[in-house]
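Data card: per-record layout.
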Amino acid sequence: MCWPIGDLLHWAWGSVCDDSRDLTDADVVCNQLGCGNALQLPLLAPSGPGTGTIWFDEVECSGNESSIWQCPHALWGNHDCNHKEDVEIMCSEHKELRLVNGKHRCEGRVEVFYNGAWGTVCSETLETRDANVICKQLECGTADFIDYDARLFGMGSGHIWLDEIKFNFKY
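The structure for this 171-residue chain is written out next.
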């Protein structure tokens, strides 16, 4: 779809109201973003109310649409909502990384959030340079040490999402 250049100057990021929202609508959005399917879970860290224009209201996707734009909805910008009703979605391909049971957020057992659940990372072959990648991703500087014994930070539970981690480095 093409718009005259003058019309593009009026577009801005906004939100979608949760009126009539269901898992089918969320699935269309996750698929549009290439992020898997929508999960029917409470969000790990709700982002809170949005700001700006509420662009969509009364969205009614059938599930066959390839984007939210193709779903029936009220006219763009027409709504009876406030930002407390903004839609928040978590998709199955959402991944997070954290360190747990340490003295601070940059110390502890490595855990990964994947497919709606926290799980562990098992790797007796993890090297310092691999640990440095994890620390860098968590904005924690470089690794001071690697502990392969569960006694220091406790034994994990749930799925073991990753094993035998080896990062490929290109210099």
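Known properties of this structure: The domain at 95-163 is CATH 3.10.250.10 (Mac-2 Binding Protein). DSSP finds three helices and six strands in the chain.

See the next section for split statistics.
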